[in-house]
Amino acid sequence: MNGDPTLERIARGNGLALCAAGTWTARFALELEQMVAEAEKLTGSRPNIFIDVSQVSKLDTFGAWLIERLRRSLTQGGIEAKIAGLSANYSSLVDEVRRVKAIPAANATTVTISGMLDQVGRSMVGIGGTIIGLIDMLGAVLAAAARVLIHPRSFRLTSTVHHLEQVCWRAVPIVVLITFLIGCIISQQGIFHFRKFGADIFVVDMLGVLVLREIGVLLVAIMVAGRSGSAYTAELGSMKMREEIDALRTMGFDPIEVLILPRMLALVIALPILAFLGAMAALYGGGLVAWLYGGVDPEAFLLRLRDAISIDHFTVGIIKAPVMAAVIGIVACVEGLAVQGSAESLGQHTTSSVVKGIFFVIVMDGVFAIFFASIGM
Amino acid sequence: MAPEAQTAIIRVRDISVQFGSTRVLDGLNLDVKRGEILGFVGPSGAGKSVLTRTIIGLVPKISGRIEVFGIDLDAASASERRGVERRWGILFQQGALFSSLTVRQNIQFPVREYLNVTQRLLDEITVAKLGMVGLRPEVADRFPSELSGGMIKRVALARALALDPELVFLDEPTSGLDPIGAGDFDELVRTLQRTLGLTVFMVTHDLDSLYTACDRIAVLGNGKIIAAGSMADMQASQHPWLRAYFHGKRARAVMG
User: I need a surface site. Which of A330, A336, B106, B244 has the fewest CB within 10 A?
Assistant: First the structure.
């Protein structure tokens, strides 16, 4: 009963009967399609053709459609094609596929030079749009902050503290560990190379200036962009996808005030703290390596450190932290709100949140370097 | 088909499911016969979706046995399991369409994975399936985020039916559809059941669906099936929840 499908030709008067038999189901789709294509070539040979399906033991949508395809192409070839012997079970299925309209061709996209130029132009305009978007968000956040200052009761303390826990407290172990290791590496490399000139002790100068001014805050900012910036984008993006942000808006809440301000504030508070802890961990790690590997004992290290660095180095580093936090936060929130309906879009925006966040952090660091150099700090 | 008509396509024996310390299903037994449309009702939170998800293997059970197409799913080898999965289709409550694929790609995805079919036939079948669930072919190139709630349901059904399964699980198929759309949907399920010999396991709260589409109704309560039978049996039952459900204001409105 469940035999392989067949399509036999039997001459009948001046017409022809195509006898379909066996299982006409999806499992045999490839064979069926070949048989039907073969039968379609009969176009023009006979004035009328019966498609006899009485021997078909099993029919599904695939089989029914292929029979319908055969009937259509024969009819188009000027042959009177009829389907006969359809059992009551399957007649509604065949009727169903008969209602299917001609298939619209999938529109193929062709690659042309003008198309590529068009793409380039669009991405350039997109860059402009990104910068305007960031400034727009900065303005909106500042406006929301001003509103909260005027009406302090609308400030969301619980939410801010929650985010502070997420981005600051929970980030401490990993930030401390990584900056500690970086401090160790800088110190080891410094000693290794400076030793050739007998200038081992200068490693303390290098470590102090580098860690407090640049590496400490930059490294921590990059880690925060990767850790918390991405989390913000993913959170806001999935809220956008599930229309939660629209729901907030319709209830009369400002999403900037409810969702973004607490996150931004948490980040602006967290980054200086993390940068400070990171700098301390890096100095500790550097000092440890200088002692164990370079033979600079802790007392000598601290004395040298006090001579080598001034409070300015520390100030320069820590001033940068909140600004970088604001940049990371704004980029993350803009990307989060730009998420469209699909999971793919969420992934793209989370990626670009981290990439853009790190890029802007480094740009800001360069701007600060020029600024501090010109005011002589 | 006559001897097959009475065989159970799903046989659930004594299954229990527990989340933490709450027992959701407690020694539940259920048979779904080949070719029938089983309506599955029960109070919200009674575990209707949990049972569905347990049968399809998404929720682990702590005891009991589930047979689908006569195959014990616990004892089945990976390839047997794949065979079973190829023969059933599932419509999730929220549609669960792949958001980064178009409607066309969503429907073609299972076919492409399981069958060796030419692209031309694939495209034609996609349009046929869309037509069956009452959608126009133009919808094919849209993304799920560009569809209305009712359209998502329909596309999800088209995807569930893509492989011409023998058994479909529908989790609240008509919720979120307008009454006319819901009526069409019931009609569609009926038609498909007739034409494809489909067995349907339908979790629903839509009394209209229960009246017009279902052959048999099973009621879940306290982790067990408290009643199973025809609509008439349900109406005759003296169980307080069943009386409230089938003789309530809404039920009377449906019955006219």
Answer: B244
- pLDDT of B1 > 50? The answer is no
- Name every residue whose Cβ is closer than 8 Å to that of residue A279 and which is 6 or more positions away in sequence: A179, A211, A212, A216, A217, A314, A317
* Contact predicate A92/A59, CB 8 Å: no
The pLDDT value given to residue A103: 60
A25 contact B CB<8A: yes
Contact flag B196-A29 (C-beta cutoff 8 Å): no
Type of residue numbered A316:
V
Average the pLDDT over B132-156 and give the result: 83
Amino acid at site A119: Q
pLDDT in tens, A67-82: 888 888 877 777 777 7
Closest CA to B49 of B171, B197, B229, B223: B171
Q: Say what the pTM is.
A: 0.70
Residue A298 vs residues A115, A195, A281, A332: alpha-carbon distances, Å: 65, 18, 15, 42
Which residue positions in chain A have pLDDT lower than 50?
Answer: 1
Q: Using CA atoms, how far apart are residues B131 and A19, in angstroms rounded to an integer? A: 28
How many Cβ contacts (< 8 angstroms) between chains A and B? 89
Q: Which residues from B are below 8 Å from A104, CB to CB?
A: 127, 137-138
Q: pLDDT digits over A356-371, tens only?
A: 999 999 999 999 999 9
Arithmetic mean of pLDDT over chain A = 87
Separation between Cα atoms, residue A300 and residue A167, nearest integer Å: 36
Q: Tell me if chain A has a CB within 8 Å of the CB of B194.
A: yes
A47 and A14 Cβ atoms separated by less than 8 Å: yes
Cβ distance A160 to A259 under 8 Å? Answer: no
A69–B124 CB contact, under 8 Å: yes
Helix B149-160 vs helix B179-196: crossing angle, to nearest 10: 10
Picking from A224, A230, A227, the residue whose alpha carbon sits closest to that of residue A321 is A224
Q: Which of A25, A89, A103 sits opposite B127 (nearest CB)?
A: A103
Length of chain A: 377
Nearest CA in chain B to A240: B145
Residue B5 scores a pLDDT above 60: no
Please give the angle made by the CA atoms of A56, A96 and B165, to the nearest 5 degrees.
65
Pairing of strands A80-84, A48-59: parallel
